[in-house]
C-alpha cells in the first residue's frame, strides 16, 4: 500500500493495465498457435487494449508535464516554470524513464500495423514482437515514471539547457520510432525460424526494414544538425558513443534491406538475412545498454547516468541473444539458399561486395564504440578518437562509391567489361571534369581526388538511371537509384566540409576591425533586441556585409555558461561564428560631459567650447534613410574649440547609427591642443547634443579598456551537400518504402526493383528489371 500511495495513480494504473493486456495478448496468440482459431480475435483485442493503455500512460505524462504537476518526481526533475510549452513537452524524453516510455509508445502503435501485415504468420510474429515490447514494459514497471514526491515543490529542477532547442523537440521522438521499428524485421525473422515457415517473411518484413532505415536516417540527420547549430564546436558528427549508438543499427539496417532484396528477387541471402535481422535489433539493445548503464559516463558527454537498470538491460540483451542464437543454430543449417554463382561483374556479386563492405564498417564502429568496455580490465581504460573512425572508414567509403558507380549498368548474368565501360563513359567524363575543377580549386591530394571522382561518378551513373526509370516506370520505381544519388552527394559534402574546412580563433576588440582570412570582423557589442546576442559585423573583400549574432550567456537556473553559435549559410559555404570568451572591459572616464544647444558655449578649463550645429552634409541622405528605416545614418556635430590665447578651431564629431543592427558608433575626434571629444548622444526634440571630453589639460584621463570577444570562426565549404544528400537518400527510401508496403499489404508478388541504399538495382539484360 505504501508503494501504491507513492504513485500517481492514473499513470501507474495505465502502466499496470498495459502489463496485464500484454500478457493476455501473449496468452491469446499462444492459443492460436495451439490450434484455437477463435482466440485470434481475443489476441488482437488484447493487443489493442495494450496499445491503448500505453497511449493513456503517455498522455498522462504529457499532461502532467504541460500542466507542471511537480508532485510527480519525473516532472520535477526535468521541467520548470520558466520553460515554454514545447520545451516542457520535450522534457518527456529528457530522462531515462520518459525516453523508455516514448519508445514503448511508438512500438505499441507500430504493432497495430504489424499484425495487419503479418498474414498467416501473425500469431508467431506478434508473439515475438509483443515479447520485445514486454522487455521495455518490465523496465518501466520497475522504474515507474509516475513516482510522486512526499512534498510538492514550487518549481522543478529545469530542463538541460542543451536540450532547450527546437531540433531536440523533434529529434528524439523520431529516433525512438526507428528504434521501435528495429524489432519488426527481428520478429518476422525469429517467427520464421521458430515455426520453420521460411517463405514470405522477407517480403512482409522488407517495407518495415525500409521504413526503419528511413526514420532512423532522418533522426541521424536531425541530431547532426542539432549538434552543428547548437553545441558550437563547428561539426555535425564527432563519433561520440551516443551518436554511434544510432549509426550502427542504421548501417546494419542498410545491409539488411539489401539482403532482403536479394532473397525476394533471387532466393539468396536467406540464411544471412536472419543473422542481419538479429544484428539490427541487438545493436539497438547494445547501444541502449552502452549509453544508459553509466559505463560510458567518463567517455561521453551525452551518456545517461546509471539509473540502476544495468542488470535489467543486460538481462534483456541476454534473453534475446540466447533465444536468437538457439534458433539460428538449430534452424539455420536446414534453410535452403542459392549460392552466388554470378560472374564478378554482375549485379549479384556487386551487391554481395557492397553489403560486406557496409557490414565491415558497422563492425569496426561497434568495436571502436566498445573500446571502454574492451579495455576496462586495463589500468587506464580508454576510447578511440575520431581519427580512428575517419581512417578506417575512408577506404570503405571509396569502395562503396566505386560499387555504386558500376552497379546501375550491370546485369544478373554479368556484363562484359567493354560494354560496361562504354555505358559508363558519359558519366565518367562528367566525373572527370568535376574532378579537374576540384583539383584547380582546392583538392590536391591524390587520394582525395580519387574520392571526388568516384563520388561524382556514383552521382552521375545513378542520376542517369533515376531519370531513365522515372520515365519508363514512374518515380516510385526509381527510389533505390535516387537514394544512391544522395549517397554520392553526401560523400562530396563529407570530404569538402570536413577535409577542407578552416577554423581560426580570434580576439575581437570592441569597434576594432580584425582581419580573419579574406574577411574583416568587427565586434559591435550586444544586440538591443536580445541582450544575450553579440553583434559581429562581417565585411567581405567585395564589400558585402552581414551581421553575425553568436550567443554567450549564463543559464540562470544551472549557472552554466552557454554558447550558441551563429551560422551564416550560403550555397558554397557556411560562415560559422562560435563565441569562446567575453570580457566586458572597463568603461572610460569621459572627464566631463556637457549638453549644448545650437550656438551655446561653455568654458572647460582654459578652453571655450561652442556647439555650432549639425552638419548634415556628412550624409545628405540621413533623414531619408531614417524615414525608410534602412541603412546607416551618419550625422556630424560641429564644435568650435578655442584654446587659451588662440583662435577657434572646428572639430567634426560623428554620430553613426546602423538601423539594421541597431548599433551606434561614436568615433572619438582629436581636439586642438590635446584631448578628445565624443558625441555621447543627440536630443532630436530640442536639437541639442551631449558631448564627452577626455584628455583635456587638468582633467582626469582614464581611457578605460575595450570589451573583448574571443570567437572561433569556421568556414565549412559545401556543407549544404551533407544535408541535401541525406534529404535525397531519405526521399528515395520513402518512395521505396511506400511501394513495398503497398505490395506487402496487397500480397503482391515481389518485383525486382532496388531498395534504397548503397548498391541496389541494375538493369537486366533487356534494360528492365529482372
How would you describe what is shown here?
The chain has helices at 2-5, 9-33, 39-66, 73-78, 85-90, 96-117, 122-142, 166-181, 183-195, 201-230, 241-266, 270-292, 310-331, 347-369, 371-374, 386-406, 417-441, 446-473, 479-499, 622-628, 720-746, and strands at 502-509, 514-516, 519-526, 534-539, 545-548, 551-554, 561-564, 566-569, 573-583, 592-596, 601-604, 607-615, 632-642, 649-658, 664-665, 669-670, 676-683, 688-694, 708-717. With 770 residues, the chain is an alpha+beta fold. Among the domains are: 1-164; 504-586 and 712-717, no CATH class; 592-656 and 669-696, no CATH class. It has a 5-stranded antiparallel β-sheet. Helix 12 (270-292) packs antiparallel against helix 13 (310-331). The longest helix has 30 residues, at 201-230. The protein starts with a helix and ends in a 24-residue tail after the last helix.
| Secondary-structure-derived class | alpha+beta
Low-confidence stretches: 748-770
Helix content: 40-55%
* SS element count, helices: 21
Task: Write a short abstract of this structure.
The chain is an alpha+beta fold and 770 residues long. It has helices spanning 2-5, 9-33, 39-66, 73-78, 85-90, 96-117, 122-142, 166-181, 183-195, 201-230, 241-266, 270-292, 310-331, 347-369, 371-374, 386-406, 417-441, 446-473, 479-499, 622-628, 720-746, and strands spanning 502-509, 514-516, 519-526, 534-539, 545-548, 551-554, 561-564, 566-569, 573-583, 592-596, 601-604, 607-615, 632-642, 649-658, 664-665, 669-670, 676-683, 688-694, 708-717.
Amino acid at each position: 500500500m505504501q508503494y501504491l500511495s507513492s504513485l500517481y495513480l492514473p499513470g501507474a494504473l495505465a502502466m499496470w493495465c498495459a502489463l496485464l493486456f500484454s500478457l493476455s495478448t501473449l496468452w491469446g496468440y499462444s492459443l492460436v498457435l495451439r490450434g484455437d482459431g477463435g482466440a485470434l480475435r481475443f489476441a488482437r483485442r488484447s493487443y489493442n487494449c495494450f496499445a491503448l493503455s500505453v497511449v493513456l500512460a503517455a498522455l498522462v505524462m504529457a499532461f502532467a508535464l504541460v500542466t507542471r504537476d511537480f508532485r510527480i518526481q519525473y516532472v520535477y526533475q526535468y521541467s520548470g516554470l520558466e520553460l515554454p510549452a514545447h520545451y516542457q513537452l520535450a522534457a518527456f524524453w529528457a530522462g531515462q524513464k520518459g525516453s523508455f516510455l516514448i519508445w514503448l509508445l511508438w512500438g505499441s502503435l507500430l504493432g497495430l500495423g504489424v499484425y495487419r501485415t503479418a498474414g498467416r504468420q501473425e500469431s508467431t510474429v506478434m508473439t515475438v514482437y509483443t515479447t520485445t515490447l514486454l522487455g521495455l514494459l518490465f523496465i518501466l514497471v520497475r522504474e515507474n515514471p509516475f513516482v510522486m514526491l512526499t512534498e510538492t515543490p514550487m518549481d522543478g529542477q529545469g530542463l538541460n539547457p542543451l536540450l532547450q532547442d527546437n531540433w531536440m523537440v523533434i529529434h528524439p521522438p523520431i529516433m525512438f520510432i526507428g528504434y521501435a521499428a528495429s524489432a519488426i524485421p527481428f520478429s518476422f525473422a525469429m517467427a520464421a525460424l521458430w515455426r520453420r515457415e521460411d517463405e514470405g517473411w522477407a517480403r512482409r518484413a522488407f517495407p518495415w526494414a525500409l521504413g526503419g532505415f528511413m526514420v532512423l536516417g532522418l533522426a541521424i540527420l536531425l541530431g547532426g544538425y542539432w549538434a552543428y547549430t547548437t553545441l558550437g564546436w563547428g561539426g555535425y558528427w564527432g563519433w561520440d558513443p551516443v551518436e554511434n549508438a544510432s549509426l550502427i543499427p542504421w548501417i546494419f539496417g542498410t545491409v539488411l534491406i539489401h539482403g532482403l532484396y536479394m532473397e525476394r528477387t533471387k532466393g539468396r541471402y536467406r540464411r544471412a538475412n536472419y543473422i542481419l535481422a538479429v544484428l539490427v535489433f541487438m545493436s539497438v539493445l547494445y547501444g541502449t545498454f552502452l549509453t544508459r548503464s553509466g559505463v560510458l559516463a567518463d567517455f561521453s558527454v551525452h551518456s545517461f547516468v546509471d539509473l540502476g537498470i544495468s542488470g535489467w538491460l543486460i538481462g534483456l540483451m541476454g534473453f534475446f541473444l540466447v533465444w536468437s542464437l538457439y534458433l539460428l543454430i538449430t534452424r539455420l543449417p536446414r534453410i535452403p539458399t542459392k549460392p552466388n554463382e554470378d560472374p564478378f561483374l554482375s549485379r549479384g556479386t556487386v551487391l554481395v561486395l557492397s553489403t560486406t563492405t557496409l557490414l565491415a564498417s558497422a563492425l569496426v564502429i561497434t568495436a571502436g564504440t566498445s573500446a571502454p568496455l574492451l579495455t576496462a580490465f586495463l589500468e587506464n581504460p580508454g576510447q578511440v578518437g575520431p581519427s580512428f573512425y575517419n581512417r578506417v572508414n575512408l577506404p570503405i567509403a571509396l569502395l562503396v562509391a566505386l560499387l555504386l558507380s558500376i552497379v546501375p549498368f550491370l546485369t544478373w548474368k554479368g556484363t562484359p567489361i567493354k560494354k560496361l565501360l562504354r555505358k559508363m563513359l558519359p558519366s565518367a567524363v562528367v566525373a572527370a571534369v568535376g574532378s579537374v575543377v576540384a583539383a584547380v580549386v582546392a583538392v590536391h591530394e591524390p587520394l582525395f581526388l580519387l574520392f571526388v571522382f568516384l563520388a561524382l561518378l556514383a552521382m552521375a551513373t545513378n542520376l542517369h538511371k533515376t531519370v531513365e526509370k522515372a520515365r519508363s516506370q514512374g518515380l516510385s520505381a526509381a527510389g533505390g537509384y535516387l537514394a544512391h544519388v544522395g549517397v554520392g552527394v553526401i560523400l562530396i559534402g563529407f570530404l569538402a566540409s570536413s577535409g577542407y574546412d578552416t577554423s581560426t580563433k580570434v580576439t575581437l576588440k570592441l569597434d576594432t576591425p580584425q582581419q580573419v582570412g579574406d574577411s574583416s570582423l568587427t565586434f559591435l557589442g550586444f544586440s538591443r533586441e536580445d541582450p544575450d546576442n553579440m553583434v559581429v559585423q562581417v565585411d567581405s573583400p567585395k564589400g558585402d556585409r552581414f551581421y553575425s549574432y553568436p550567443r554567450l550567456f549564463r543559464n540562470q537556473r544551472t549557472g552554466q555558461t552557454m554558447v550558441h553559435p551563429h551560422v551564416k549559410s550560403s550555397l558554397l559555404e557556411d560562415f560559422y561564428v562560435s563565441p569562446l570568451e567575453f570580457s566586458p572591459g572597463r568603461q572610460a572616464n569621459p572627464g566631463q560631459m556637457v549638453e549644448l544647444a545650437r550656438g551655446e558655449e561653455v568654458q572647460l578649463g582654459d578652453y571655450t567650447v561652442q556647439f555650432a550645429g549639425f552638419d548634415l552634409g556628412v550624409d545628405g541622405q540621413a533623414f531619408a534613410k531614417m524615414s525608410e528605416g534602412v541603412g546607416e545614418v551618419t550625422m556630424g556635430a560641429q564644435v568650435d574649440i578655442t584654446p587659451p590665447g588662440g583662435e577657434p578651431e572646428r572639430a567634426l564629431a560623428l554620430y553613426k547609427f546602423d538601423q539594421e543592427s541597431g548599433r551606434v558608433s561614436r568615433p572619438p575626434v582629436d581636439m586642438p591642443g590635446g584631448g578628445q571629444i565624443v558625441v555621447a548622444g543627440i536630443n532630436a526634440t530640442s536639437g541639442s547634443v551631449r558631448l564627452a571630453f577626455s584628455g583635456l589639460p587638468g582633467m582626469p584621463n582614464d581611457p578605460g579598456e575595450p570589451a573583448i570577444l574571443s570567437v572561433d570562426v569556421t568556414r565549412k565549404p559545401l556543407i549544404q551537400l551533407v544535408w541535401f544528400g541525406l534529404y535525397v537518400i531519405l526521399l528515395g527510401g520513402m518512395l521505396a518504402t511506400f511501394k513495398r508496403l503497398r505490395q506487402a499489404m496487397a500480397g503482391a508478388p515481389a518485383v525486382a526493383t532496388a531498395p534504397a541504399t548503397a548498391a541496389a538495382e541494375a538493369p537486366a539484360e533487356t534494360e528492365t528489371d529482372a
